[in-house]
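Incident log, structure service

09:12 report received: a user says their structure output differs between two submissions of the same chain.
09:20 pulled the input from the user's history:
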Amino acid sequence: MDILNRKQAADRLNISLRTFERLRRDGKIPAPANRLKLRPLIWEADKIDALKG
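09:34 re-ran on a clean worker, output below:
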């Protein structure tokens, strides 16, 4: 399983980090893989790739 931090996930979607955070707050980005408030937040690459369509 490939994992991405916020910056890597935003880059993979070709959006700014600010836009990534706004989409995350709006519920349009899946929840991070580490939901226990651990830092840094990480996402599974395949879930981010699924957003590309």
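09:41 both user submissions now match this output. Likely a transient worker issue. Closing.
09:42 reviewer note: The CA atoms of residues 22 and 28 lie 9 Å apart. The chain is about 45% helix and 10% strand.
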